[in-house]
Amino acid sequence: MAAMSAQLADPTAPPEKAVLDRVFAALADPVRRAVLTRLDGADLLVSELAAPFDISLQAVSRHIQVLVRAGLVRQERTGRISRCRLDAGPIFDAALWLNRYSKYWQSQFDTLAAWLDHISSAEGEGDDALSRGHRKTGGVSPRHRRTARQDAGVAAAGRTRRGRGLPPRDE
User: How confident is the model at residue 155 (pLDDT cuts 50, 70, 90)?
Assistant: First the structure.
């Protein structure tokens, strides 16, 4: 694991870029992301962090060391006891780096919204049309509301037959 993150970092990159490489390499693993989620708002012992995982304490410790090297976790040792704390600073730096590229996907969303508005106005504002606010929230047009309810009833009946009866949703 540690060798893998060392291989991903570009040795010729400036120090801030190398830190960013280590952060993304650390975040690439689902176990490490789960460790960070557990540390959100709480300081935990390594044994407490390892409890929900189906891997050994040693494996969790190695994941934690990758997070420490990336600067995402701070470890405080008192004798044999090791307490871990989330350090969100490098995540913020990664978010800033990603945000530089948001203009590319945001323009695609704006184009899609414009086309949806154009299609909606071209078809007319009949029974089947939804306002943009209803489209964003997943609304169902009046024409298709009965079909949607029937589909929901069939899905609920299927869950009950499979033995996973869920309480009905309030509408």
Answer: low
